[in-house]
Amino acid sequence: MNDRLPAAAAANLTYFAFASAATPAAPRGTARPVGALPELLGGRYRIERLLGVGGMGAVYRARDLLREQFGDPEPWVALKTLSDDCADYPDAHALLYSEFALTARVNHRHVVRLFNFEVDSASQRAFITLELLKGPTLDQLLDERPGGLPWAELRDIAVPLLEAVAHAHSLGVLHGDLKPGNLLLAADGLRLFDFGLGQAVAGRLPGLPRLCRERITAWTPRYAAAELLDGAPLAAAADVYALGCLLFELCSGSHPFGRLDARQAREQALDCQLQRPANLPTHCWPALRTALALDPIQRRIDVAGLLAAFRAPTQSWLRRWLRPVPG
Ligand SMILES: Nc1ncnc2c1ncn2[C@@H]1O[C@H](COP(=O)(O)OP(=O)(O)O)[C@@H](O)[C@H]1O
Ligand SMILES: [Mg+2]
């Protein structure tokens, strides 16, 4: 079954809500409300066109006039700013800065490369600049491949993805919104982006701004672990669950629990009924099935464990046949 229908698209958007005015707000980063997005930001980035919008932000292609002035033949960057709804919120600058600070720490060839965080003084718009990526997002790829990817292609996406997230976790950075729309297949390989809902692992990376989940709730319904929907703080296990959904979807073309979110799937114990997708080698299935456990206590695998399973060589029938007989 292919559940990637237009009606399901809304469930793939990040659900993002600021708490009511009754909840105390963080100190205001700026006294003035933000203005309309100007054509020139920071005195040097000329907005050329919209590349994409997500639950929180809008990403534009912009020309860096400074680079151009110095003769750079490729002066284009991607420029991310918060959507108008989010940009007016008192925490808006801290939200974007948190994304910048977390992404900047995860220096990895499969994580988008960051340039700068700035606030345009005239409009009071905060924005980040990052490498301009070209290629389909995994969402777009899945739309074109409704039956999922064969193992050789799946592996070429899964291994870099798991390497990037394992690296981020080893540095104490959690992504918080792993899903096909936050991954892009560039000409030189996969890129993970959008650490906008990321967090530092509790007790690590002191000094980084932390999203206060009492003031904002944010998740993507189809990839959020049940414990997040229950109100638990983000932890590495929730990234593992989202990766499980993503990998299952890449190999089968369908989300493991269809249109249900993790809490609805838990009510019916659907994780006990999952079948191995045909494109997935048998040696990867125990790891993937464990990552998809709806109860975090049963989810006894980390990203490094998933990576080890997906990296392990596939046993060919010839090798199995040639295995020496004991005795
Ligand atoms: N560096 C980039 N280069 C090109 N396009 C990008 C880049 N970053 C994001 N995009 C596009 O913009 C969309 C929204 O970006 P994202 O960072 O996910 O915003 P949000 O936080 O609102 O989800 C992406 O799905 C993608 O299509
Ligand atoms: Mg996004």
Q: Would you kindly provide a written description of the structure presented here, covering whatever features stand out?
A:
With 327 residues, this protein is α+β, with helices and mostly antiparallel strands. The protein folds into 2 domains: 36-130, Phosphorylase Kinase, domain 1 (2-Layer Sandwich), CATH 3.30.200.20; 138-311, Transferase(Phosphotransferase), domain 1, CATH 1.10.510.10. Helix content is 32%, strand content 17%. It has 12 helices and 12 strands. The chain has helices spanning 6-12, 65-69, 84-87, 92-105, 138-144, 151-170, 226-229, 236-252, 262-267, 285-291, 303-311, 317-322; strands at 15-18, 40-41, 45-53, 57-64, 76-82, 114-119, 126-130, 173-174, 183-186, 189-192, 199-200, 216-219. The strands form 4 sheets. It has a 6-stranded antiparallel β-sheet with strand order 2-3-4-5-7-6. A hairpin with a 6-residue loop joins strand 6 and strand 7 (126-130). Helix 6 (151-170) runs antiparallel to helix 11. The longest helix is centred in the middle third of the chain and has 20 residues, at 151-170. The chain is globular. The N and C termini lie far apart (47 Å). Magnesium ion is lined by residues 14, 54, 181-182, 194.
Shape: globular
Radius of gyration: 21 Å
User: In terms of quaternary structure, what is this?
Assistant: single chain
User: Low-confidence parts, pLDDT < 50 over ≥5 residues?
Assistant: 1-8, 18-31
The CATH first-level class of the largest domain comes to: Mainly Alpha
In CATH, the topology of the largest domain is named: Transferase(Phosphotransferase), domain 1
CATH superfamily (homologous) name of the largest domain:
Transferase(Phosphotransferase) domain 1
Number of domains: 2
What portion of residues is helical? 25-40%
How many alpha or pi helices?
12
The run of helices and strands is HEEEEHEHHEEHHEEEEEHHHHHH
Q: What share of the residues does DSSP label as strand, in percent?
A: 15-25%
Mean of residue pLDDT values: 87
Supply the helix-strand structural class. alpha+beta
Give the name of the CATH architecture of the largest domain.
Orthogonal Bundle
Task: Sketch the major β-sheet.
Answer: 6 strands, antiparallel
Strand tally: 12
Bound molecules: adenosine-5'-diphosphate, magnesium ion
Q: Tell me the distance between the termini.
A: 47 Å
Order of strands in the sheet with most strands: 2-3-4-5-7-6
Keywords: ATP-binding, Kinase, Nucleotide-binding, Serine/threonine-protein kinase, Signal, Transferase
Domain Protein kinase: 45-318
GO molecular function: protein serine/threonine kinase activity
InterPro entries: Prot_kinase_dom, Protein_kinase_ATP_BS, Ser/Thr_kinase_AS
